[in-house]
Design goal:
This protein starts with a strand and ends with a helix. The chain has a 5-stranded mixed sheet, with helices on both faces. Helices cover 33% and strands 24% of the residues. β2 (53-59) and β3 form a beta hairpin. With 160 residues, it is α+β, with helices and mostly antiparallel strands. It has one domain (4-157): Gcn5-related N-acetyltransferase (GNAT) (Aminopeptidase), CATH 3.40.630.
């Protein structure tokens, strides 16, 4: 039976994190989209102003996946929640139970911290949607994601 380990990432894990982020981008059909560098991840994940945390998942000592998360906030509940920016399991490690264990790990972190919920977004074509629903995550059909970035963000800021 394979040995599964899930632990907090350390600064020494930054190359592994970046490799997993690039593998996620390839899975999401955007292999050239990753602009983040090891220096960016080190600064923002392990510097004085931490912007995110990472849980790394291993099978028999081999990096098999990760979850990058940070707190969000519910004004209605008056509590933080855990927002999963990225979660990814390498193809060779899927169907091992690792994804379920990683989501359960994040849920436990949220509860330990007194956070009221766990949120994530999934691409509409991603087969993991059924997996998340089996775990009890509900698709928020009435909430539509919006985003502005790059040139649009700069143009909007100029209207201030």
């Amino acid at each position: 039976m394979p040995k599964i380990e899930i632990r907090n990432a350390t600064p020494a894990d930054v190359p592994t994190i970046l490799a997993l982020v690039k593998a996620l981008a390839a899975f999401e059909r955007e292999p050239d989209a990753v602009k983040a560098s090891e220096a960016d991840l080190l600064r923002d994940g392990f510097g004085p102003e931490r912007r995110f945390e990472v849980r790394l998942a291993f099978i028999d000592g081999r990096a098999a996946g990760f979850a990058l998360f940070f707190p969000n906030y519910s004004t209605w509940e008056g509590r933080a929640g855990l927002y999963v920016e990225d979660i990814f399991i390498e193809e060779w490690a899927r169907s091992s139970g690792l994804g379920r264990r990683l989501i359960a790990d994040l849920a436990a972190i949220a509860l330990e911290r007194g956070w009221s919920r766990l949120c994530l977004s999934v691409l509409d074509w991603n087969p993991a949607r059924g997996f998340y629903e089996k775990l009890g995550l509900a698709h928020q059909r009435e909430w539509l994601p919006y985003r502005v970035e790059g040139k649009g963000l700069r143009m909007l800021a100029e209207q201030r």
